[in-house]
Each structure stands twice: as C-alpha cells, then as structure tokens.
Amino acid sequence: MIRIAVILGSTRPGRRGAAVARWIVAEAGRHPDAVAGDVVVEPVDLADFDLPLLDEPSPARFGDYRNPHTRRWSEAVASFDGFVFVTPEYNHSMPAALKNAIDYLCEEWQDKAAGFVGYGADGGVRAIEHLRPVMAELRVADVQAQVTLGLFADFEIESPTDPGRLTPRPHQQEALAGLLDQVIAWSRALAPLRAGRRVAQPASTG
C-alpha cells in the first residue's frame, strides 16, 4: 500500500490552508487507487507537532535526534511514501514553519515523491518554485503537475481574519487529479529505492 501525506505547511491561526488540505484529502479519497484500497492519503498538520526553530545539535543527515519532538516528526514523515505540500506564499516564498520542518530531517524524505498545492494572492506560485530546489536537494522527486489557488478567485472571504470558504473551479479539480496521479505513480516507482535502504533511526537517549 502507498501512503501519501497531505502536509499543511502553515501554522498560522485561521490559516486558509486547512480548507485546502481538507479538499485534497476528500478528492484523493475518490481516486481509483484509493477506492481500490491501494493508496491511503492522510492529512499531516505541522501545527500538531509544535516544532521549535531547529534545535538539534547534529546535522539531520546523521539521524542523531536528541529531542522527542524531532523523533515524533521523524516517525511521521518516515511512514509515508509521498507527499502533497499545501503552502501559502509569504513574502515571495514558503512559510518559515514549513522550511523549518523540512530542515529537521533528511533521509526520511529521500526517494519519495512530492506534489505542491499553493495558495495566495498570486496562487502561491513563488512558494512552490522555492520548494522545488529544496526537494531536489533532499532527493525527492517533485512532480510536474501543480495546483494554484487565488485568494480572490477561489475563496469566499468576508474579512482579512476570515479563513474563507474554498470554492475550487473545474480546471483546478482536474489539475489536482493529475497531481495525485503523478505523486502516486512516482511513489510506486521509487519503492525499490526505499526498500534498498534503511531509514535513519533516532538515537537512543538511554
């Protein structure tokens, strides 16, 4: 079975990404491979992990994790075969919370696939463009298909503090279907590479 995580990349109270993540999980549940029981798609909310600014003394590539929050995050990421990142665009890039969470780990990301769903005034396209080279450095196969959601065209928002209601249009439904197809296919294709290595284990705190 292939397991895909929908990673909600903003921790801001009232973030609009929560509605985006729910939409992705609901649409993924109707994917033929999910209906057949061959794929499971689950939400992963960074806010649930409460990660501080990176506080591990050793570089992530050694897998020598000393903190309980790091080990918990490591176990979560290691359990998935692919990812769909949901990211807003903050000042021409991804949120600091998302980059921080990515930097906590190394081998847990490797030889997996990733797709991107961005949202913002310009659809989150620049956040996605910044994520792609980060994924490449971590040996993650980022797929070509992506989804971009505009704050003014794709959300019904009553005030600046209102998270709004997501109203995706038909072409975005089609784009998400294509993204899921690619993430699932590449997650399967990379399975032999994942099987040929052992994910770094957290260091014992004995």
Automatic annotation (TrEMBL):
GO molecular function annotation: FMN binding; oxidoreductase activity
NADPH-dependent FMN reductase-like domain sequence ranges: 3-151
InterPro entries found in the cross-reference section: Flavoprotein-like_sf, FMN_Rdtase-like_dom, NAD(P)H-dep_reductase
Domain of life: Bacteria
Gene3D superfamilies xref list: 3.40.50.360
Protein name, as recorded: FMN reductase
GO CC annotations on file: cytosol
Pfam families: FMN_red
